[in-house]
Write a structure and sequence with these properties.
By secondary structure, this protein is α/β, with parallel strands linked by helices. The protein has two domains: 43 residues; 251 residues, Glycoside hydrolase/deacetylase (TIM Barrel, Alpha-Beta Barrel), CATH 3.20.20. Helix content is 42%, strand content 18%. It contains nine helices and eleven strands. The chain is globular. The termini are far apart.
Length: 311
């Protein structure tokens, strides 16, 4: 019997398989590219929505110290006025940046941000005086960030660094004046922590007496609801202000940007607002990025001293 010859596989079939595989791979890659572009656009749109929308939901205004407990909440109503592009109608905004003195790394932002800003410096740190020099060089207002006793504090501080409610008035005055002497160029004071101290009227009277002697102002960082600082300052004739919005208890760009929107609404509704944040790269970068937007909405960035003088 004659042996049947095997039919050879056509070369064209192999080529077709290669083409199909290439087409499938191309579709897969194209799908990945489309997915990436859509995702990126959603991310950008989300950021733009955060920055430019009218705030219709509650925005948490958080405490700057003491385990990030919230102090107050600003509720913009569902019919809140949009942040329209109307020059000169937004109100005044003052920024205070706390906790300077451990490093000079963020001094570059004092150079790069031309608008007024207050630098609040902790006493007795390695770079306390260096930061004061940096603030003066770049025409930024310097303040003392005065360490006061908190209700709950788990950090270590040297003896007599924190002013406590159990201290005698003579010791309190000595510590306050010692801290003020380290920073002769300062123009004001605000509290570092202090939820316990700012509720103690006799203690704050002693502190305010020394602050007033030097012709300085005091800003309450609002780390507690039961602070006596406002009423006491009125009683003593001390130039006084309080923090309205805290920027960076949650240290993410989205959270800080959201607080900038809350700041804008607060200033729009009240005519002015005081914002406090920390000496952090991200906080300073967001402020730098968003100030042009605030100014476009008609807000004027002023020093805290000017705001307290011309509210």
């Amino acid at each position: 019997m004659a042996q049947r010859k095997k039919t050879p596989t056509p070369k064209s079939s192999s080529k077709n398989d290669t083409k199909v595989a290439a087409i499938v791979l191309g579709i897969f890659v194209a799908g990945l590219v489309v997915f990436f572009v859509i995702s990126k656009n959603k991310e950008i749109a989300k950021h733009a929505q955060i920055v430019h929308r009218s705030v219709a939901t509650p925005v948490e205004i958080s405490s700057p110290d003491e385990n990030a407990r919230p102090v107050e909440t600003y509720h913009a109503s569902s019919s809140a006025e949009p942040l329209a592009d109307v020059a000169g109608s937004g109100g005044k905004i003052a920024f205070i940046i706390d906790d300077w003195g451990q490093t000079t790394a963020n001094c570059k932002y004092l150079r790069d941000i031309p608008e007024p800003m207050a630098v609040s410096i902790l006493p007795g740190l390695r770079h306390t005086k260096d930061v004061a020099k940096c603030a003066k060089l770049y025409h930024k207002l310097a303040m003392l960030h005065l360490p006061l006793e908190a209700m709950h504090n788990f950090d270590f501080y040297p003896v007599n660094y924190i002013i406590k409610t159990t201290m005698k008035p003579e010791l309190v005055s000595k510590i306050v004046n010692g801290d003020l002497d380290q920073l002769p160029s300062i123009e004001g004071v605000n509290n570092h922590m202090g939820s316990k101290a700012t509720a103690d009227r006799p203690l704050m009277r002693t502190i305010f007496r020394e602050v007033k002697k030097r012709g300085l102002f005091f800003v309450d960082s609002m780390t507690a609801h039961n602070t006596v600082c406002g009423s006491l300052a009125d009683e003593m004739g001390l130039t006084f202000g309080r923090r309205d919005v805290f920027l960076d208890n949650v240290n993410t760009r989205e959270a800080i940007t959201k607080q900038m929107v809350a700041l804008a609404h607060w200033a729009r509704h009240h005519g002015y607002a005081v914002a406090i944040g920390h000496d952090r790269h991200l906080t300073m970068q967001v402020i730098k990025d968003e100030i042009p937007w605030l100014e476009k909405q008609g807000f004027k960035i002023v020093s805290i001293k000017e705001l307290l003088r011309n509210r």
